[in-house]
Each structure stands twice: as structure tokens, then as C-alpha cells.
């Protein structure tokens, strides 16, 4: 389409190879209150995550993690956003035309919030209700049992009584990553037999040690 009067088109990044994955990314040229307004994306608070883990341990129930493929591309944009044609993919003789974006695109500031809004609308449509004291926990109670969904950006933590309930969630969210093993870089180890869960940040600690060139430093038992 032709660019509307008073509007501007955002550029896309060049086609230099970074990895073998097809992505179209917008260069950060947006202006607040022109190309976007709110950009926030809430995540579950740590204290509520601790409560959720306590429930999982006490009741010895299923605790799985699901990932939404290309999550940030699913939200419907509220603002009018235009992009130039990607370099090397211009329509012959129509190079001046632009794209009007209907959904989110990587690089846009507002896509995390737009995605969160789309996800919460979907959960409510599926019968989930938001916890009044925590915006990122949704609960659904049916005759078949209870399901709890905790939101971490494009990852979902699923707490259910039985495996069939997990399978029911998979019908809508196909990428089940299995039992939770990592949350925000924190490794989760579970001992179901003794109803215990451990956290450790070994990977994070190793990165800090490497960052400050301490990989060959002498070890001590007391910092």
C-alpha cells in the first residue's frame, strides 16, 4: 500500500547471516506515543512462584512447562505501524510502497504487551480466571480437576492434578517441554518420592565467574 500522509515507515534489518532461522526484524526507530504507547509485560512474582511450588510439592501433582512458538507474532497491534519493504525483497516497480502491520513483529517495542493481552484473552476464553492478587496466574476448575497457568513471557508453567489435564492443554498449546527444569535461568530439580524441589543457579554463577576471569581462581569454602 502507499504510505499514508503524516505516517512514517520503519526499516527492516539487513539480510546479514546470524543464524539459520527465518525472521523479519524491525530496526528500533519507533517514537513513543507515535508508533507505540504501553510496552510493559508482567511476569509472575517470585513469592507467588514459591507458593505455586509449595502446592506442587504438597499435593504431588504435575508441573509442566509449555512454550508458544513465535509468541510475539500472535498479538494484534492497536496502533498503525508501517514498514518499508525488506531489502532485496522489494516488488519490482513498486519500491515506494510499504507494509501495514496487523500483527506484532520482532523489534517492535509494544509486542510483549500485545502478546500478553492476546494470551490472557485466550485463557479467559478457555474458562480460566485471573487470580485477583496476581495478574500472571490463571485458574480453571472443572469436574475433571483444577488447572493453574503461570505466565513467564512466552513460557507457561502448567500445574494440574493428572496427565490427561496436561494433554488437554497440549491440544491448544502444542509445544510441551515436559516437566519444569529451568525457570528464568534457575535450574529446578524435583524429587517426587520425597515431595521436595531444589533451586540452583549454577549456570548463572559460572557466567559471572567467567565474566570476571575467575575460572582458574583458587577455591575457598567461605567467601
From TrEMBL:
Residues 19-223 form the Reverse transcriptase Ty1/copia-type domain. InterPro entries: RVT_2. This is Polyprotein.
